[in-house]
Design a protein that fits this description.
Elements: H1 3-20, H2 23-44, E1 50-56, H3 57-65, E2 76-83, H4 91-102, E3 106-109, H5 111-115, H6 128-131, E4 137-139, H7 143-153, E5 157-163, H8 168-176, E6 184-191, H9 193-206, E7 213-218, H10 220-226, H11 232-238, E8 242-244, H12 249-265, E9 270-272, H13 284-293, E10 294-301, E11 305-314, H14 323-326, H15 347-351, H16 383-390, H17 395-402
Residues 345-347, 350, 357, 360, 362-363, 367, 373-374, 376-377, 384 line the site of iron/sulfur cluster (SF4).
Length: 407
């Protein structure tokens, strides 16, 4: 192992320990959280639930895996948001990818997209994993893997580019540096997160029986690119605190504490907890190359529909890399979009924070991580898959009691 890699791993290990293994600090944070929750209870009443949306799938993983719901007071409700790109990729585009594979084009895909089931079958196939025997479907972990393989095989190929703002600079850089070979096209399905945040906040406010979202834990990795400034519009327009958070349990607890503190003080600011990775202005170079390579489009989100200015497609200048232009992949137009979740699946409500995975009658009955029925059960960032693996409350609550961490 190289010296630089060893050094990096030792730092990563120290950070992980500092943000996971400090029980005294956790107790001190929980004490303050409890104090603030009591003040809020005295203002809003005993039955009021303070809904905090953890936007991103990785935060949902931290919250569920570490049993954070069982640590915080009962009047604080942590709800998952739409931060799982695989969950929200429309069925239509996976159906298009299946068609390409059946036409003999090599399809490069991430592992979770590979298992994603479509609404409609294409010649009897409903996922790229099913089509593997008939067409060429290869699993990759990045565009770089796809580039290397496409150069080697020289076959006509397509890379399915799913992700949020974090993946776009890598795609842009590969294109601008001329690394993508002629025989490889990119199906850009990159989604932009702020429009989904606005939509989920609006829709929760529209449901009168539900308490509104009172604070947002915003995605740390997306914000390394966009900067904290991308979220200030949320605190300004909705009058709620937003905290850009890291992904360790102490990061998340500190973010909850900051939200409650602001609510007690009557403030609504966007602040960065994840200062070790995020700045206010973000990665300006990355933002510049993304703007040069991609155009912003109104895009469809699975089960949800079209959200304005929520997706990225390649600009005309780069059409020679564009699967939509060069391989005839069909775009969906707003008027053509149809509800694309399988019958009974409540994934759209789960991703919008309107329902918990356990509210779905199919959860762990028809739909399991081994045999996912709906898209939220596929990816490790999907709320249903996370709840299926780690549960919520229950065992975590018992362990917290044993460690004297409950309030
Ligand atoms: S458990 Fe499965 S079917 Fe139910 S909402 Fe989640 S993904 Fe959809």
């Amino acid at each position: 192992m190289e010296e630089s890699t060893r050094y990096f791993l030792s730092i990563a290990d120290k950070i992980e320990k500092a943000f996971r293994e400090n029980r005294e600090l956790v107790k001190a944070i929980l004490k303050k959280i409890n104090e603030y929750s009591k003040v809020l209870e005295s203002i809003y009443g005993k039955d009021f639930r303070f809904k905090i949306m953890n936007f991103c799938g990785t935060h949902e993983w931290t919250v569920t895996h570490f049993g954070i719901r069982s640590l915080v007071p009962k009047n604080i409700e942590l709800v998952a948001g739409p931060g799982c790109p695989v969950c929200v990729t429309p069925s239509h585009f996976i159906e298009e990818a299946i068609k390409l594979a059946l036409d003999g084009i090599t399809v490069y895909t991430y592992g979770d997209t590979y298992k994603l089931r479509t609404l409609n079958s294409v010649k009897g196939y409903k996922s790229l994993s099913e089509v593997r025997g008939e067409g060429v479907v290869k699993l990759v972990t990045s565009l770089v893997d796809a580039i290397k393989d496409a150069r080697k095989t020289n076959r006509e190929s397509v890379f399915i580019g799913i992700g949020f703002e974090t993946v776009a600079p890598g795609y842009a850089s590969a294109i601008l540096k001329g690394l993508v070979p002629e025989n490889l096209k990119i199906m850009s399905l990159v989604k932009l997160t702020p429009p989904a945040m606005f939509y989920s906040l609006e829709i929760l406010r529209e449901k009168p029986t539900e308490p509104p979202v009172m604070g947002v834990i915003a995605p740390g990795h997306v914000s390394t690119i966009t900067g904290g400034k991308a979220w200030s519009v949320v605190s300004e327009n909705y009058g709620i605190p937003v905290v850009i958070s890291g992904f360790e349990p102490i990061d998340v607890l500190l973010s909850i504490l900051e939200i409650l503190k602001q609510l007690v003080k009557g403030e609504a600011k966007t602040v960065i907890e994840y200062k070790r990775a995020v700045t206010w202005h973000g990665d300006i170079r990355a933002q510049r190359i993304v703007a040069k390579t991609f155009r912003v489009v109104d895009d469809a989100w699975r089960g949800i529909g079209f959200l304005p200015k929520s997706g990225l497609r390649l600009r005309e200048e780069y059409r020679r890399y564009d699967a939509f232009e060069e391989l005839g992949v069909k775009e969906i137009k707003p008027g053509e979009w149809g509800y694309d979740l399988p019958p009974g699946c409540r994934c759209a409500e789960v991703t919008l924070g309107k329902a918990k995975p356990t509210d779905c009658p199919l959860f762990m009955r028809v739909c399991t991580p081994d045999k996912p029925y709906g898209p939220c059960m596929v990816s490790l960032e999907g709320a249903c898959a996370i709840w299926a693996r780690f549960g919520s409350g229950g065992l975590a609550e018992e362990i917290a009691k044993e460690l004297s961490l409950t309030i």
